[in-house]
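BUG: 3D viewer hangs when loading the predicted structure for this chain

Environment: internal workstation, default settings.
Expected: structure renders.
Actual: progress bar stalls at 90%.

Input used:
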Amino acid sequence: MWDNAPWEPRKWQKEALPMAIAALREGRRPIVSAIMGAGKSILIAEIVYQALKKLRPDYKIVIVAPRQALIRQLSKTIAFRCGAENVGVYYTHEKDLTKKVVVTTFVSAPAIAKEMNVALLIGDEVHGTEAEHFKNSYENLDPACAIGFTATPYRSDEAQSLTLWDEVVYRYSAADALSDGVIVPWELVHWDGKGASDADDVCCRLIGRMDGPGVCSALDIDDAESYAEYLSERGIKSKAIHSRMNRKERDYLLERLKSEDLKCLVHVSLLAEGVDMPWLKWLCLRRPVGARVRFVQEVGRVLRSHPGKELAYIIDPHDLFGMHTLSNPEKLGEVMTREEKEYEEELVKLAPDENEQEVIRKMPAAVAFAQMDSYVANLLSVMRSANVCSAPNKWADGKWRGGFPTARQLITLENLKWSSRYLPASVRVPFKLIIEKAHTYNKGTVNDLITILIGLAQSSKPARQRRTHYHMPNIRYPVPKFGIQQLLFVMERN
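Structure tokens produced before the viewer hung:
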């Protein structure tokens, strides 16, 4: 594999390729999950290259993607590896079904479903393949084998499974990408709450502090044009970019942004699938993104590494990190960096028996839960000293704390969960994560969580009546090892 490849594959690509091919040979419909910018298109091209070696003359390979920009990018990458004579595209302006490999969009796929025998179907950004028209296309294409690629192997709605696919066979995580330098670290930027009149004013002031090119989200095209004008009037050179423009106009604006002739582009869905802008320095989440898939895609694209780019800044006036992290029931302690995983594997090898191996494997989760328990206890202590939780904890001691939480406790916690919104943002994110996994804690910890939430609910009553958030006195206790993990919890849903 990778023989005579025109590029040097990354470590994760070398690892993923045999696992993907093995799954295909076994008749499974696997997904390879890799963070945006990791190089999925190169792996796709290599799978196509390997498949072409054994392709029967009367069969074809079909690659589907959600957007025209993405199929153009994919077709170029595949042609570079497999030869332009083997690759054709099929969409609105170009319809070539004569080649061994056909790259098309989700929308155009139904038109070709009955025109060919499909040996291999490759889906890119397959979190969008649950639409009925694509399912019908899949059934009509009836591929002998199928494999999907996405950074977000789940749906935007409440139903999380992707029904056309069997399992994720390889996952290249944000932690791995950060370790490999594929993405850069990031910093969340919030407003201190002073001197701003509304959200537009807050975003404008924060954008004014940023260096280099960036993008700001809008609700629709009219809103994008209006806010771009608003920024320009305040000395921030900006333009709107949207679907009413032709490709040439959009490319021109992107070049102006890249050269820093513009500081900001205000967009509606510019950072959706298929847009490569690794040189972006910052992003403003002005639009309150409701779909977690869209949120992850948008944030992930500004994190791509680029020469001279050491840090990405994310302006988050609506606390979207907190909201989307809350909806993700990832286990605490499940996310480890590659170095941590390798260290754990070495310890397992050195263990004398299976019992000790099992203990080692459970250590990360155990450490995370210990940190969580300590965090809750310290937060409770600080809030009491600030007179936020005035009620004494009558269950502070006793053997009962080690038992499993009761159904009544969990119901109470669920009913009070809303009050966590009154915590400072730096505390709110990890605290919401902790609440979501309450059923795995002991009685004592759950009781402490309830005490905190009752204190917040009582202290925030006047604030709620004024429709403003209650601001606690400064809680200086640091968040234990959750800082860089915030996005990882969002992006690595299993």
